Amino acid sequence: MNIRMDDIDRKILVELQEDSSRSLDEIARRVGASKTPVWNRIRKMREAGIIKGQTTLLDPEKLGLEACFFVLIRTSEHDAGWLERFLNAVQNRPEVMEAHRLAGDIDYILKVRVASARAYDDFYRALIREVSVYNVTSTLSMEEIKNTTALPIPEPE
Questions:
Q1: What are phi and psi of 124, to 5 degrees?
Q2: What is the DSSP letter of 135?
Q3: 134 secondary structure, DSSP code
Q4: CB–CB of 131/89 below 8 Å?
Q5: Are 51 and 45 within 8 A, CB to CB?
Q6: Reported pTM
Q7: What DSSP designation does 20 have?
Q8: Do the Cβ atoms of 92 and 100 come closer than 8 Å?
Q9: Helices 7-18 & 35-47, crossing angle to 10 degrees?
C-alpha cells in the first residue's frame, strides 16, 4: 500500500518518534489537528508499513551494558551455507544491536552491547565457534556522541 503523506502526517511521525507514549490527544494538539483524523492517519500509516511498531528505549549503561563495540568482519567464504550460519549466529545473539552487510573491503559490521571487555571476548569466542571468519577487527566506542532511532522525515518532492 502506498500513501501520500502531507505535512500533518510528517508532524505525526516526528511526534511518535520523539515519544510514542504520548496520548492521542497530546499528539493531535501538537500537530494542530483533531484526535479522530490523527488516529485515522496513524492507522493508515501502520497499514502501509510506514509505522512498523512501537518499542521502549532502555538506557544500556543503567542496565550494566557499558561497553559498545563495533565489529568489522571480513570473510573469505561467500557461499550460501556460510551465509546461513552467519545470519543465524548474528540474529540469535542478543548482544548484536545492529548488523549490516557492506560494500568495500569490509564485508559486515556489527554493533555489539555488552557489560565489559570480558563479556565481549565471550561473545567473540561464541561467534567464531559458530562461523568461520577471515578477519575480525573490534573497536570499542569511547564516547557515544549521538544515538537516535528517529529517521529524518523527507519533504515531498
A1: -60, -45
A2: E
A3: S
A4: yes
A5: yes
A6: 0.88
A7: T
A8: no
A9: 80
Q: How far apart are CA 125 and CA 129, in angstroms?
A: 6
- Cell numbers 573469505: residue: 76
State the Cα–Cα distance between residues 157 and 144, nearest whole angstrom: 34
Query: What local confidence, expressed as pLDDT, does residue 155 receive?
Result: 83
Residues of the chain below pLDDT 70: 1
Residue with cell 496513524: 42
SS3 for 48-117, per residue?
A: CCCCCCCCCCCCCHHHCCCEEEEEEEECCCCCHHHHHHHHHHHHCCCCEEEEEECCCCCCEEEEEEECCH
> In whole angstroms, what is the distance from residue 37 CA to residue 43 CA?
10
Cell 556522541 found at: 145
Model confidence pLDDT, tens digit, residues 81-96: 999 999 999 999 999 9
Task: Tell me phi and psi for residue 2, to 5 degrees.
Answer: -115, 125
In the chain the domains, ranked by start, together with CATH numbers, are 7-47 (1.10.10.10), 61-140 (3.30.70.920)
